[in-house]
């Protein structure tokens, strides 16, 4: 597993914490780790916490969209949580408003939504 | 400090100081820019004397034939005196043109006095008069610059204040925010709105924000674009945006312009938007039966 991103299992939900110093290679590794873990643990919910992320570019934006698309294909509902205002503004500026991804204010908000749907 | 060759102008100002002062004063009176309603004779005379003294002191330091550079060190005393007097006079309601005429009134009496002194040497008279005219003109323009700079500063300050006043984010209810937009929504304000709103979402852990455009005068494609981007950013943060205050007329315009709001929720009134917001955060407002008890 890459050092700049960690995957934890909470209940039946996979929690992905992305740190600020994440590199492009780390992200690609994360993509592989996450897809394998979803299948192995038959997780129905994924929460990607990007509260630590201060800088985004088109690459990170694209990977975030890909992560949620992959999880969705593997039948796990995915939430991106904790986005900072500056990051949100940058993504909108770049035209990457992640139309296919679900978002929530925080980890607890996402968990509540997943529980309400019986996925956690 | 370089001592320039003494000219008749500087000699005149030194030797005939009081007469020049009187004549300047008289010209202002004749041209109606003395404003006796705002300044007593003594006060006005003192102002003129300050200016004239600074003027005459600077004249001996500069080369009259060179181009006028009012930012030069030699003029610093006069610049200072001039801005002080301009400030005092404008504070009491003197108009910019009056202030310019106030200074320009020095030209005519000095020309006349020079003519008397240099009647025998027309070349010298012409040169001195022209040079003197250039300097007085330069200072008249300097006054105008001063007014423009002053006004620009006021405009800039008011713009900043308006910016602050015009983007208040208000908490309507637990987890519900609203930002009532008023006036015009240009790119700069749109940026400000988005920043304030997103920061408020974090601060209040808001889940629903109502962007109310009842007070927005014109909705064109650009304004619509700003609104939709704000809504997109709000969604990325994990909250939901409701755009309210869309009048029937604005709805028609938006469709005619081909604006597609996509999945963004819209409501005609802020009341309807609040209703929807309550539903989403799980509150309900109900009538209290027999509320007069």
Automatic annotation (TrEMBL), chain A:
Biological source species: Limimaricola litoreus
PROSITE patterns for the chain: STAS (PS50801)
Superkingdom, natural source: Bacteria
The STAS domain, residue ranges: 3-114
Protein's name according to its UniProt entry: STAS domain-containing protein
InterPro entries documented for this protein: Bact_StressResp_Reg, STAS_dom, STAS_dom_sf
Automatic annotation (TrEMBL), chain B:
Domain of life: Bacteria
Pfam families: RsbRD_N, STAS
Keywords: Phosphoprotein
Domain STAS, residue spans: 166-277
Annotated CDD domains: STAS_RsbR_RsbS_like
Name this polypeptide is given: STAS domain-containing protein
């Amino acid at each position: 597993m890459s050092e700049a991103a960690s995957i934890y299992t909470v209940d039946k939900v996979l929690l992905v914490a992305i740190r600020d110093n994440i590199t492009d290679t780390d992200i690609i590794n994360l993509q592989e780790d996450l897809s394998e873990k979803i299948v192995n643990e038959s997780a129905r919910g994924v929460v990607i916490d990007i509260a630590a992320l201060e800088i985004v570019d088109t690459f990170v934006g694209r990977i975030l969209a890909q992560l949620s698309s992959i999880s969705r294909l593997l039948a796990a509902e995915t939430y991106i949580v904790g986005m900072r205002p500056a990051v949100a503004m940058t993504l909108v500026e770049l035209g990457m408003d992640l139309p296919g991804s679900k978002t929530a204010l925080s980890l607890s908000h996402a968990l509540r939504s997943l529980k309400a749907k019986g996925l956690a | 400090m370089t001592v320039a060759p003494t000219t008749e102008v500087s000699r005149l100002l030194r030797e005939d100081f009081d007469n020049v002062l009187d004549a300047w004063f008289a010209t202002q009176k004749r041209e109606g820019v003395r404003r006796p309603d705002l300044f007593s004779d003594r006060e006005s005379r003192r102002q003129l004397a300050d200016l004239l003294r600074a003027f005459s002191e600077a004249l001996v330091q500069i080369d009259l034939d060179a181009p006028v550079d009012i930012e030069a060190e030699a003029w610093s005393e006069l610049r200072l005196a001039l801005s002080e007097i301009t400030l005092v006079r404008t504070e009491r309601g003197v108009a910019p043109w009056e202030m310019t005429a106030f200074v320009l009134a020095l030209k005519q009496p000095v020309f006349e006095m020079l003519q008397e002194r240099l009647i025998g040497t027309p070349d010298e008279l012409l040169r001195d008069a022209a040079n003197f005219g250039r300097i007085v003109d330069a200072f008249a323009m300097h006054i105008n610059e001063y007014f423009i700079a002053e006004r620009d500063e006021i405009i800039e300050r008011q713009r900043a204040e308006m910016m602050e006043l015009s983007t208040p984010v208000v908490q309507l209810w637990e987890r519900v925010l609203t930002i009532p937009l008023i006036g015009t929504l240009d790119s700069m304000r749109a940026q400000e709105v988005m920043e304030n709103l997103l920061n408020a979402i974090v601060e209040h852990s808001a889940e629903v924000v109502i962007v109310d455009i009842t007070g927005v005068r014109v909705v064109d494609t650009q304004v619509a674009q700003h609104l939709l981007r704000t809504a997109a950013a709000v969604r990325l943060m994990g909250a939901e945006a409701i755009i309210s205050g869309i009048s029937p007329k604005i709805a028609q315009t938006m469709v005619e312009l081909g604006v597609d709001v996509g999945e963004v929720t819209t409501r005609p009134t802020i009341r309807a938007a609040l209703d929807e917001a309550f539903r989403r955060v799980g509150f309900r407002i109900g009538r209290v039966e027999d509320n007069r008890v």
